[in-house]
Structures are given as structure tokens and as C-alpha cells.
Amino acid sequence: MNDEEEFLEDFGAVALSDSELEALLERARATDDAELRRLVKQHRAVRYAGEALLSHVESTQGLAVINANPMLKIARFFLRGRP
Hints:
- This protein is an all-alpha fold.
- It has one domain (25-83).
- It has helices at residues 3-11, 18-30, 34-61, 63-68, 70-80.
């Protein structure tokens, strides 16, 4: 098993879609679940900031920088679903 296969085995859960997050947020509102509401909002904020960071690095330094940096590869996987 190579490093990429091992990573996918460990962290291979598919991220929730925007529509799934919105449904969770609506459910949290409907049931007055403040913790779930806060969790979804925090997740959406991190997703937004992370995507902005990855886009900035790609546009200013190129995709090779992301591919060479294990932490950026992990961020890309969690944000975009690909290693």
C-alpha cells in the first residue's frame, strides 16, 4: 500500500455537501439545537477559509506547492475530496 492509499484508508470519509450542511443547520434551527447549529456554522467557516487559502496558494505559487506539502494535501482532501 502506498502513502496515498494509506491516507485514503484512514481519512477517506466523504465530506458533507453544502446541501447536507444546510439541511443539518435547518434541523438544528427547527429543534433549537444550539450546539449542532454552532458546529455546522464553524464547519462552514473553516471550509470557506480553507478553500480561500488553497485557491490563493494555487494561484500565486502553483499546484506543485500543494502537492509537495503534506498539510496542504490534507487540507485539499478535506475541502475538495481529492488527495
